[in-house]
Known about the structure:
Largest sheet: 5 strands, mixed
Strand order of the largest sheet: 3-11-10-6-7
Mean pLDDT: 79
Distance between the termini: 158 Å
Number of strands: 11
Amino acid sequence: xxxxxxxxxxAVYWRRRLMVLALLLAVVGGGGxxxxxxxxxxSGGSGDPGxxxxxxxxxxxGTPALERVVPSLASVQTPTxxxxxxxxxxxxxxxxxxxxxxxxxxxxxVRAPGGVSQGSAPTLELVVANISSVPxxxxxxxxxxxxxxxxxxxxxxxxSNDCQPESSDDVRxxxxxxxxxxxLVWSGLSSEPAxxxxxxxxxPGQYVLRGRLDTKVSGDTPLTVQ
Length: 226
């Protein structure tokens, strides 16, 4: 086996044996590269001036080596947390007991006789009522109260605070539906603010009375002067 015998030279027989060995290694997968090297570099004198094959790996100028592809920041989608449902705000609370009586919680009314004689001194009433469903607190000071007399064109002829203004400290808690009545006597005479003009008897005719408690104003109450 080690000394091939035949009509050809020993080198030929050795080359054939090496080729068979290389093919066998390539089939089993463990010596593919070795087989290729043997096939390409087995000849001693042709192809390579040095008598042996030299394998080298080179990269063409300007060609980058292995690169790692990095996505741009613009293409990266940042995961967003799912939106947290927000709770519905509670409905606004209504007035509570002990809160101030707003203008929408009270009613104002002027009560008067249907008709009065000229020059008489009728009694008029300013009525304040809690029209809400809860107790509330309201300032009822006399200086905040007023009744005025108007003619058919809306001209002011008399006011209860013009000539004899009064004052008091009157803060009350009004129960639901509670009414407070403030009577006053009208002299039947006209007046101007601060009682600046001479007062005269109001002439017979059709008039209206209008009441006020601070910023809350009543409707009109008709009054006939005979």
